[in-house]
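User: Hi! I'm working on a homework problem where we have to compare a predicted structure to a textbook description. Could you give me the structure for the chain below?
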Amino acid sequence: MDRDEYPSGDGKPLRDPGVFPGKCEIQAAKYPGEAGFLGWVSVKSLQAATAPRVWSLAGVVAAGLLLVLVARFVLRSSFFQAGRESAETRAETGTPAG
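Assistant: Happy to help. Predicted structure tokens:
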């Protein structure tokens, strides 16, 4: 086998490219089963992951939640002050959909 087939450089193939294969975009799901399938793949990936990888993921999630809370309550970001939009408010303002 060529050296290019072993990107780690130590002669061993990479067996686990990551906890989540691909992007985790639940909002982009077009069919109801896609979110369930993504959850199933995520659970299976986490079950097969090593403890340091799981703790790393937990740390990233915790840091992200902490930053969202800081932006919301400490920095008082205008993103969290924006009003919610609905079909009725679009009809009232005449804003085209899409």
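For your comparison, note the following. Helices lie at 32-48, 51-74, 87-93. The two ends are 51 Å apart (CA to CA). Good luck with the assignment!
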